[in-house]
Structures are given as C-alpha cells and as structure tokens.
C-alpha cells in the first residue's frame, strides 16, 4: 500500500475508503493513554503519542501503530465494516493532534508544565469525544475548510 495524498484536486479521485472503526480505536487509545499520563504526571506521554499519530499522518494509516494493531487484532474479529469513510478528515484531525502534542512537548521542555498539560488534555478530550460519540472535531474542520475551498 502507498500513502494516499492528503488533498484531492478536481482531477484526482478521492482515496479509497477506510474502516471508520480504526480511527475510533486510535482515538480511544490516545484518550486513555494521555489521561493515564496526566494521572501519573508522566509528561513524556505527549511526545510518544505525537510520534504515534505522526507516523499515521506522514506515512498513511498503514504505518500508525494503533491502526496496525486494530487492523491485525481487532478488525478480523469484528467482520467487515458496514460503510467506509474518507481517510482525509481523520488524517487531518490527527495532524492537528500532532501539532498540539508537539507544542505540549515544547512547553514541558521549557518548564511550562501547566501549558503542556492543558494542550495534552485538549487532545485527550477531543479524542475521547470522537471515540465515544463519533463526533470528530478535527474531521468536521476538514470538511468545513474543504467546502470553503470549493471541494466536495
């Protein structure tokens, strides 16, 4: 598999759909991992999850560690999805998460722990919201920006 482009032009078709349960699993693991890191005061959780998300953003979902685990461990037990989703919105949302977690890492390294945890917990809260309800704020931002730019 090759990494899909993050944007489509009128000449490019949309990339192949993905199982929406993969990103939701990723969001659940992210939310729990960041919350546990906060509970134990372990700030390196921010850069660790920035790398985990960043692999999926930069190289495609086939390289995201949680998505790989989902695909090999959970998906075969769940059966095929009832519908597929465009991979670009979750990838965009993950990129925003990487940005927040990178900024949190810088804050932690600069000694601004409160700012680091605020940024980290924003990501955790939005990931938990998406995992539990299916409402992905970053995905909705992608759709809105796409519409504003004249894309479908």
Order of helices and strands: HHHHHH
Ends distance: 25 Å
Coarse shape: globular
**If you average the pLDDT, what whole number results?**
90
Oligomer: single chain
Low-confidence stretches: 1-7
Treating each run of at least 4 consecutive H or I residues as one helix, how many helices?
6
Q: Name the beta content range.
A: under 5%
Please tally the β strands and state the result.
0
The figure for the number of domains is 1
Helix content: 55-70%
Which class best fits the helix and strand makeup?
mainly alpha
For the CA atoms, what is the radius of gyration?
16 Å
Biggest sheet descriptor = none
What does the model show?
The protein has 152 residues and is mainly alpha-helical. It contains 6 helices and no strands. It is globular. The protein starts with 20 loop residues before the first helix and ends with a helix.
Task: Give me a quick take on this structure.
With 152 residues, the protein is mainly α. The protein is built from six helices and no strands.
